[in-house]
Amino acid sequence: MNDELDELNLVSLLASDGEADPNAVDEAREELRRMIEQPQLQAVAQREPSRIVPYLIYDEPERAITWLTRAFGFVELPDGRVVDDEGIIQHAELELNGAVVMMGPPSIHGDSPSRGVSAMLDVTVDDVTAHYRRARRAGADIVIELEDAPWGVRRYQARDIEGHQWQFSQPLAEAS
Question: How far apart are the C-alpha atoms of 133 and 61, rounded to whole Å?
């Protein structure tokens, strides 16, 4: 902080000195600006990105994984699967375009959507039209057909095999 004050004093003195080289004043100001901004830029670069990861409950997680990969194009993360002593999936993680969804069977964490508990997830994809066609071919229960929404996205909504509702969208400027 003392270096910053010294720079500030230097700029002040140079600016008030009628004989100072105008280029030296500009250079001192620029150096001061860099010194002030540098710690702020480093702090921003060191922050972890904010992540919200949905956790969905499925009565049959293995069946859901198979269906979600086939219908929506998710990929199971190999290190994300936890299986109990009986071989039943207790936790799994799927990824699509960098977005992660966690899942597991009914437990203290939540009940199945077949008993009234649900959520809707919005996932941005690169080509929503192709994604819609894939989901339809796989037998997804389409809740809202492919459409251009008034808020600037092309989207559709589908319910998966256990009732979770998904919205897949793409900004209209990027949609085909």
Answer: 24
